[in-house]
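May I ask for a protein sequence together with how it folds?
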Amino acid sequence: MKLIYAPASPFARKARILIKELQLEDKVTLQDAGAVTPISNNADLNLINPLGMLPALTLDNGDSLYDSPVICEYLNHIADGPFFPADSNQRFRTLGLQALGDGMLDLSVAMRYETAMRPENLQWQTWLDYQQEKVQRGLDTLEARCQQFEKSPLIGEITVACVLGYLDFRFADNDWRSGHPVLTRWYEQMLERDSIATTVPG
């Protein structure tokens, strides 16, 4: 199998973390996709994912999977892993947490594109402010729920770690740690995991 990724992609990072956690390094090759932006075409990637988005996973039979929740669940499935629990209550709690984290990442990546790729005179500050407010509400929700996070991380907690890592990487000046002491301590503990520490974007 081959994971098509970009080092800065927080969505691809979720899959890379699971590859390490599930000890699939000998079964999944990592391939850097190179330049992938909303205003460019990557012909090779488009053949695998018609949407031209990362990550994408090519299977040994020639099929491909895309969208990080699908890829992560597939990896967990083939390794009989613990990251998507079978118990319905626990499963939907962790899927809900993953959805919150993915939503925060969608907003953050969109803000990154707005400021990094759109000409400065065309940037929409009001739109940026509203997206930032949504991310802030997400952080406040995570702070309130953090003490109920699973002690052994599931896909929800893995996604939250990717959110916080991406905010550090792209929005360090916003200081998400301010006002979120419980979440800060939790993330420091998560950084002690090899899979998290070795995939930090930089």
Q: What stands out?
A: The first helix runs from residue 10 to 21. The radius of gyration is 17 Å.
